[in-house]
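PROTEIN DESIGN WORKSHEET
SECTION A - STRUCTURE
LENGTH: 179
TOKENS:
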């Protein structure tokens, strides 16, 4: 779409002027009821934008934004945001019902979305703590939050003996012994 980094903030600023129902985009359908991925959604936006300007899938994505009108860009941003927020809120609500946590913290790059904050606050029957906006430019705050809760449940480890597992599931970390 040619929006500046960070993408979440750019979507949040662009989407309100667009039509969130203009483009039919898919929701993530992963096996776990709490997992999600936006890679398929981002690819769907790319393919829809290519079709919208009359190009096929071989057309370079980095050249696409120059062919989109401001209205198309806003409509794609709004449609993307609608599906992304619906997915995240549905997953958060399902996790809340299943686990009944005493607290909910929303952090990471996605926490910069005001629409997400508004919809989560409306649908979850609990006070939600949000990371400050200045910490929501990437996933560092989310990882730090997970690390904090992990440290509360485990003995300190020698940092030089830790194994790096970049795709580890949250279920394999701090909450592995719960439920």
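SECTION B - SEQUENCE
RESIDUE ASSIGNMENT:
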């Amino acid at each position: 779409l040619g929006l500046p980094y960070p993408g979440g903030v750019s979507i949040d600023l662009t989407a309100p002027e667009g039509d969130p129902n203009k483009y039919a985009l898919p929701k993530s359908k992963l096996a776990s009821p709490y997992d999600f991925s936006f890679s398929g959604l981002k690819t769907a936006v790319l393919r829809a934008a290519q079709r919208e300007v009359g190009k096929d899938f071989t057309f370079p994505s980095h050249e696409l934004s120059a062919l989109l009108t401001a209205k198309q860009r806003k409509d794609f941003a709004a449609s993307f945001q609608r599906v992304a927020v619906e997915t995240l809120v549905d997953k958060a609500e399902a996790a809340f019902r299943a686990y009944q946590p005493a607290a909910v913290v929303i952090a990471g790059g996605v926490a910069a979305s005001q629409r997400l904050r508004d919809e989560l606050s409306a649908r979850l029957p609990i006070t939600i703590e949000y990371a400050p906006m200045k910490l929501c430019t990437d996933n560092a705050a989310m990882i730090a939050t997970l690390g904090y809760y992990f440290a509360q449940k485990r003995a300190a480890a020698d940092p030089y003996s830790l194994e790096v597992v970049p795709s580890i599931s949250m279920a394999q970390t701090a909450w592995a012994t719960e439920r």
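SECTION C - NOTES
The mean pLDDT is 86.
DSSP finds six helices and two strands in the chain.
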